[in-house]
Amino acid sequence: MPLLTEDAKGVYIIAVTPFGDDGAVDLASIDRMVDFYAEAGATGLTILGQLGEAPKLTAAESRELAQRVVARAGDRLPVVVGVSAPGLAPMRELTDAVMDMGAAGVMVAPPWTLSTDDQVYNYYASVGEALGPVPFVLQDYPLTTNVTIAPKVIERIVRDVPTCVMLKHEDWPGLSKISALRASSDKGETRRISILCGNGGLFLPEEMGRGADGAMTGFCYPEMMVGVVSEYQKGDAERAHDIFDAYLPLARYEQQQGIGLACRKYVLAKRGVIATGKLRKPGAALSPADVADVERLLARQERRLQEIGA
């Protein structure tokens, strides 16, 4: 599988980790899930992210999951693996393992202990040194890491660390950050890297309008993100917004703290992608009222999609 590059575009789905009713990793569901994302038009997959419940997996399970996904994806989908860790040694160990399996690259979030611009820069400079030639994604998600990374710091990292090939933009919504980074690269001040955006796709049309290259996030209907990115790439922003609007109520509901991932897994199970919507403990579960909300949103979404012919 080719390595991740700064030219990456499209939709890299943040995949869930399927579990059986006994809490064990469901390998059969992983196969169905990978096939489903490929058939839905995904460009790539990202695994072992926060919404993949990576912190709940053992080291052995993480490797087993990565091996299964990479093998199933084959030549169809490049796979990016989250390797964030408190120290560089375990990060490098997992990176070496997944790259040997055939992963396209890795993703690294900053530890919460970083509080200054220099600390952030020095950390990612160290990541570049530790990972050697492996291309990596800088995950900018201040809502969970509590680390704010200013555009000037990202530009400095991009200039000095050539293996940083992608920004996973997950500020809230941070549209001005995308504009600043694109202005810098357009002027030739920095290298142009790929920018894929997160936050469940809630701001995807606006992010595409600011110069993002696509999405790296999860949503129980990846068809929404694929449709929005595809229409923007064709130059039809209005059609992209029409598609986005049809899915927005469910995407908004899925962004709730606590039950958001349970909602996503419930719908994926309902669609036959995974066997159960179970989260590994500790994890939330949908109440009967939550399920009723989701079913209502699904019905309304289906009607709206029929109305716009999507």
Count of individual beta strands:
8
Order of helix and strand elements from N to C terminus: EHEHEHEHEHHEHEHEHHHH
Structural class: alpha/beta
Overall structural domain count: 1
By DSSP (H or I, 4+ residues per run), the number of helices equals 12
Mean pLDDT across the residues is: 96
Q: What is the radius of gyration?
A: 19 Å
Q: Strand content of the residues, in percent?
A: 5-15%
The percentage helix is 40-55%
Give the CATH H-level superfamily. Answer: Aldolase class I
Whole-Å distance between the termini? 32 Å
| Major sheet details | 8 strands, parallel, barrel
CATH architecture: Alpha-Beta Barrel
CATH uppermost class: Alpha Beta
- State the shape: globular
Give the neighbour order of strands across the main sheet.
Answer: 1-2-3-4-5-6-7-8
Which fold name corresponds to the CATH topology? TIM Barrel
Low-confidence stretches: none
